[in-house]
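Record pair follows.
FIRST:
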Amino acid sequence: MRHGSGGRVAAIRFRAAGGFLLVAHLLLVGWITLRPLDVPWVSAANLRPLAGIKADLALGGLQAARRIGEALLLLAPLGVLLPLAGGRLVVSPWGSLVRTVAAGALLSLGIELLQTGVPGQVVDIDSLLLNTLGVALAHVAVVPAARARLRRHGDPRRVTALLREEAPQGATPTIPRVGIAP
């Protein structure tokens, strides 16, 4: 085994585990949110931000906490699984947060749009907001601390291997005989 190749193997294993768990979670979310429901009536779509949350709060504390908690937790694992599938150990915390939250918001938007064609499912803008907030909270709560711990307790060769793996590939080759078109 070459010097530093153990770090690459560990990075590949983290990425593979993250990718597998990400796909498994997305399949579960798809099954929960996109299966047809057999209901006698369907409420209208909620396109006003925070209207559904206000209605949930009017139901009482326990019922509101359950409904809002479900929406927060549905996509929250993406806040950890997306960076894990990326496998990068040394990265800007803000950049990682923005990328993860944007991906979570786009996935939530896609789910809401797909729900328009599923019987018994209704579009709710508050679900989009709460799903995205759940992704952000999970990311902030877990990812920076986990990355710092892995960097602190990890083998310096592994960190170097992870950094080297993300290095640029060099300059783009050019052909000197080909001129620029007029």
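SECOND:
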Amino acid sequence: MKYLKKFNIQFVGLKEGTHLFEYEIDNKFFEAFNYDEFENSSIKVSLNFIKKSTLFELVFTTEGYVEIPCDLTNELYNQDIQAVLPLVVNFGPEFNDDNEEILILPHEAYEFNVAQFIYEMIVLSVPNKRIHPQVINGTMNSKAYDKLKELEIKEVKTVEETDPRWDKLKNLITEKKT
């Protein structure tokens, strides 16, 4: 947790107006959260912090990449990450982060940590289905991908003819109704 202290923002000493905080995110950041799905990462996070008399407006902006395995071939590739997260920080009687767009800090607070917001923004910006760009454009050369293409169902077989004995039974049911 010592690593995450650099994400503390002490807002008591800041003047009203706009302040810019910049962070370089790598795998050490994700290790602090015990998150190991990224093989490698390089992300720049800019935090535009606007201090007003009664509240703060924060806008997190990320740009970079994470190296992750493809869901189809298990080949590693760099997934581009671009995300924007607006957040309003207000003050109240007690801490409350139930609303994802508004954070309420207790009146006696003098600092808060933005690491959790950065972590969630990056992790949620990675697509659920991770497909290597070479699979999408058809240039992937991988044993796993070649085997998947070989085993792919080419044509769906449908049963066109029914057993004539069943047809006779169906006729009995419809004849009784009339």
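COMMENT: The two ends are 79 Å apart (CA to CA).
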